[in-house]
Design a protein that fits this description.
Number of helices: 0
CATH topology of the largest domain: Jelly Rolls
Largest sheet: 7 strands, antiparallel
Number of strands: 21
Radius of gyration: 19 Å
Helix content: under 10%
CATH class of the largest domain: Mainly Beta
Number of domains: 2
Order of helices and strands: EEEEEEEEEEEEEEEEEEEEE
Length: 278
C-alpha cells in the first residue's frame, strides 16, 4: 500500500463526488478519492452517506478500515459513531449492520481494495473512540517543533509496525523563529487531512479539507499558522522519526500555492481562499 504518487497538497472540496459501484462495500453512497495505491487498491477517501442509508449483513471486506466522522453519524453493529468519533475495523471483521440514519461524511482509510469477500468473517474487535472528549497530550516530543506548540490526541498505534494515527493541533500565531527553520524528513509515509484551521508551508496554505500523501524521505517545512490548525495525521509503513536538515529554509505566510500533484490531479490544482471576516 505504498505505491502512491506524491500529493502535496489538494483541497478535497474541488474533487468530484463519485457514486460507489455495486459489488463494493458501500453501494449507494458517494466518495472522493484522495489517493489510491496503484498496486493493491488501498485508498484514502471521503465517503458521503445519504440520510437513511443502511446495509444489512452479515458481510465483511478484505481491507482493514480506519475512519473519522467529520459530520453526521454512522452506526456499525449497533454502535454509534457520532461527529468526531474515530473507528478502526480489522480486515474481515463481520458487520451485521451499518447505517447512517441522518447521513454522514466520513474520512476513511482502507489498506486494500474495499471489496466484499465470501466465506466466514471474523470476530474482530472494533475500536470506537470519542475523540472530542479525549484529552490533548501537550508534552513536547521534539524541541525543534516547540514554536508550533503542538498537542496530540493518539488514535491508534500499531505495536508491531509502529504505524500511528493521531490528531495534531498547532497553536495560533505560530511561526519559526526569525521566519526560517530547518526542514525535516521521515523514513516512512506521512499522510494528513486538515480538519479545521489552516497551516502554511513551502507549498502554500492548507485550509480545511487539504490533503497530502508524502512518500518517505521528502524534505518539508518549515510551517506556521495564523489562527491554528487541527489535522489528522497518519504515519504509514513503519515508525516515524524526524530527521532534520543542517541548514535553514525560509518561511513566508504569503507563500503561493505551488502543489506537487500527479497528472490526474493537476486539473484540480486550486488553492484555498481564506474567507474574509469583513
Amino acid at each position: 500500500m505504498l505505491n502512491r504518487p506524491h500529493i502535496e497538497f489538494i483541497q478535497a472540496q474541488v474533487l468530484p463526488w463519485r457514486r460507489i459501484a455495486p459489488g463494493l462495500a458501500r453501494p449507494d453512497a458517494e466518495f472522493k478519492f484522495l489517493s489510491r495505491d496503484l498496486d493493491d487498491g488501498a485508498c484514502s477517501i471521503l465517503i458521503r452517506y445519504p440520510p437513511g442509508w443502511r446495509r444489512e449483513g452479515p458481510e465483511h471486506i478484505a481491507a482493514a478500515e480506519e475512519f473519522y466522522v467529520l459530520d453526521g453519524a454512522l452506526e456499525i453493529n449497533g454502535c454509534r459513531f457520532g461527529p468526531d468519533y474515530y473507528g478502526h475495523i480489522p480486515a474481515r471483521t463481520t458487520r451485521t449492520s451499518m447505517s447512517a440514519p441522518d447521513g454522514a461524511v466520513v474520512l476513511t482509510f482502507l489498506d486494500a481494495e474495499p471489496e466484499l469477500t465470501g466465506g466466514e468473517g471474523e470476530d474482530g474487535e472494533i475500536t470506537r473512540l470519542d475523540v472530542l472528549h479525549t484529552p490533548w497530550d501537550m508534552s513536547l516530543n521534539d524541541p525543534r517543533l516547540a514554536h508550533l506548540g503542538i498537542s496530540r490526541k493518539d488514535l491508534r498505534l500499531d505495536p508491531e509496525t509502529g504505524e500511528r494515527t493521531f490528531l495534531s493541533m498547532v497553536l495560533p500565531h505560530s511561526e519559526p523563529p526569525g521566519r526560517k527553520g530547518p526542514t525535516e524528513r521521515h523514513p516512512v509515509v506521512e499522510e494528513a487531512y486538515v480538519i479545521n484551521g489552516s497551516l502554511t508551508g513551502p507549498h502554500g496554505t492548507m485550509g480545511p479539507g487539504a490533503y497530502f500523501w508524502r512518500p518517505p524521505e521528502i524534505a518539508h517545512g518549515p510551517f506556521g499558522t495564523r489562527w491554528g490548525c487541527v489535522m489528522l495525521i497518519r504515519f504509514v509503513g513503519g515508525r516515524h522519526v524526524n530527521v532534520w536538515s543542517d541548514g535553514d529554509a525560509p518561511f513566508d505566510f504569503d507563500a503561493p500555492y505551488d502543489p506537487v500533484l500527479p497528472e490526474d490531479l493537476i486539473p484540480f490544482a486550486q488553492g484555498w481562499d481564506e474567507p474574509r471576516k469583513f
